[in-house]
Design goal:
This protein has 436 residues and is of the alpha/beta class. It contains 14 helices and 17 strands. Helix content is 28%, strand content 19%.
Length: 436
Amino acid sequence: MSRKHLHSIHVSHYKNTAGSATEVMPVPDVVKISMSQHIGAPCKPLVQKGDYVKVGQLIGDVDAFVSAPIYSSVSGTVAGIEEQRSAMGGTDTLVVIEADKKQEPYEGIKVPEAKDLPEFIKAIRDSGLVGLGGASFPTHIKFNPKNIDDVHTLIVNAAECEPFITSDHRAMLEDAEDLISGCQLVMKYIGLDEGYIGIEENKPDAIEHIDKLLASKGITNIHTFKLQARYPKGAERVLVYEITGKKMNAGVLPAELGVILSNVTTIAFVGKYFRTGMPLVSKRVTVDGDAVAHPKNVIVPIGARICDVIEFCGGYKQEPRKILMGGPMMGRAIVSDEMPVVKNNNAILAFSKEKAAVKEETACINCGRCHRACPFGLIPTALAKAYEAKDAQALSDLQVMQCMECGSCSYICPARRPLSFMNKLGKAIVKEAGIK
């Protein structure tokens, strides 16, 4: 019997840097490390102007359940604490460090040891790890679900279905040992029976490489799972359905369906951390777009300014009209390339005026393409009508809260209507009305 799939769309992949081995960016003159790099409570700076810090030294933390510590990515002197507008529209606190280029590691770094799950969870929190592929949810919380006895499956999200981005692809080719080690550690401490690494079929080299490595190690409870090369196969709720066949409604956590789901770079970092003891201080990002002189994959210090990362890639070959943190489907446009790289950055994309131009919106022709594109069968035209009427009850009845804002409806719409964004605003109307 053939597998069933949720609705999806074909988007041009533009995987220009898939064959580009990762380069390490030289230490910049200055880094600006945000204290807001995870969902939950922002960290408070633990250093002040004039302090000397080393690589891997704790510089930010907070006593809150949903949080993760932050470490210095360079050695150097704290130049000050400043505020800056974030990509989310709020204000972030930044620890500004002038690098001395020595990259001296902090003396307190040591390879973690864990005898049981509580010690493993503590080590994961101490590493500063958050989801590195999207929402930046603190990983130590995800790895310690309340119903842990009911959780038996690990799903590693290696789909990377957004156009342009290839940083996860390179991680699978370059960090596969750490990836497999990370899978084994997570499965061991949480007590999981099976692991699946979901990879789109347009990455055959990654599938082959990981399969060979698993076979050479005699590992039989971790498998690659070939996904269609379509969007949005990497979405959490889509991936759970594709691999397990279980439907996951909005607000439901994967653990409630017996699954721990984590990004491939996140899992690879677990393996690396238990090998080296170095907390999260750097990130692999794809730098691409028609405004970038030399697109490439780069390992950068967390807190490096985007302008410095672009400069390492040859600078701009034409003036950028739009710069994105993340992909063109769900990434965020930024107001300045002075903004720093944060933990969950997986791409920096810079586009010219021509490529960034948004076509003029025209009238809906009721073609139904948006409905056919939606993974969950929503009716975006009806939702748009309810949003325009500010009808909270109609929005709720049409299940606007099920929308995951993947942008498939907006992408496929021949009238170029901002349907996904209207759903985002529609959710706010439902929440304000207090409708459950």
